[in-house]
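testing teh design pipeline on a random one, pls ignore if ur not involved
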């Protein structure tokens, strides 16, 4: 039974926004030593390693006919975004990436509309238009090294990652309504994370990279470990618990707080800021709010 949000629930919401909003600065610091591909396979592999104590119990609950769709959930909800975000951040600031990631709910609605034939209301269509316009403006006006055209191109990778998350969420909603969320998480993470872990420490060149970088290499490994265990595994557990206690509407408000945290981390790390970013992010968040109307 869902309960009215308590003070503890509000504190949990703030904690989640801090954890998820910090993901992008952790990726940025990891990129100082590792390649985008190495960060992706490490994140996936270490997440699977952290979930391994739960694997036997939850894998037994899965039937063979469910595996293909769960593998697709793992690919779209975990594997592909794990590559897209660090690749995007080779040319985008961490704050811009974090602000663009607030498009997740909007992309989830768009996938539901176009693929799963969920009928939208007028406010949702308006929200989609406003949100995408805000995202384009945000990518265009945010200061960067490569210029506006480069930022727009790499912002497209963040948008693609958001569509992946939207696809994963819709697959779960349409095919696994009765399957415990923890079982979905463990199975999908394990399916894509175990091969990634093996690759990272064999052909991925992770160990030589750490050795060659010395102390900086171990710091970078620490950042990616926090990203995997904290921002990926622990945050998922906390979020699912929050949804069970308070409902999806309250829990989903974390989408509005993550961009703020990402922006603050960027400012602390001396990333440049333009005043036009503020109206742009407001447009994105208004679009997200309208797209979540029922």
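output:
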């Amino acid at each position: 039974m869902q309960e009215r949000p308590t003070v503890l629930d509000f504190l949990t919401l703030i904690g989640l926004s801090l954890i998820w909003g910090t993901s992008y600065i952790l990726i940025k610091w990891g990129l100082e030593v590792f390649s985008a591909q190495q960060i992706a396979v490490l994140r996936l592999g270490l997440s699977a390693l952290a979930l391994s104590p739960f694997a036997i119990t939850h894998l037994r609950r899965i039937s063979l006919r469910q595996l293909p769709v769960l593998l697709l959930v793992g690919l779209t909800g975990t594997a592909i975004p794990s590559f897209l975000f660090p690749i995007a951040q080779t040319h985008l600031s961490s704050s811009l990436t974090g602000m663009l990631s607030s498009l997740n709910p909007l992309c989830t609605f768009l996938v539901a509309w176009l693929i799963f034939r969920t009928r939208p209301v007028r406010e949702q269509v308006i929200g989609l238009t406003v949100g995408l316009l805000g995202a384009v403006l945000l990518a265009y006006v945010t200061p960067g090294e490569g210029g506006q055209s480069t930022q727009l191109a790499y912002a497209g990778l963040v948008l693609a990652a958001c569509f992946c998350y939207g696809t994963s969420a819709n697959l779960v909603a349409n095919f696994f309504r009765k399957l415990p969320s923890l079982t979905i998480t463990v199975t999908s993470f394990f399916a894509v994370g175990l091969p990634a872990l093996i690759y990272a420490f064999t052909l991925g060149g992770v160990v030589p990279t750490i050795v060659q970088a010395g102390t900086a290499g171990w710091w970078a490994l620490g950042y990616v470990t926090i990203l995997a265990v904290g921002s990926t595994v622990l945050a998922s557990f906390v979020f699912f618990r929050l949804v069970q206690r308070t409902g999806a509407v309250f829990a989903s408000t974390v989408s509005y707080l993550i961009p703020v945290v990402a922006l603050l981390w960027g400012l602390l790390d001396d990333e440049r800021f333009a005043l036009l970013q503020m109206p742009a992010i407001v447009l994105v968040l208004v679009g997200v709010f309208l797209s979540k109307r029922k």
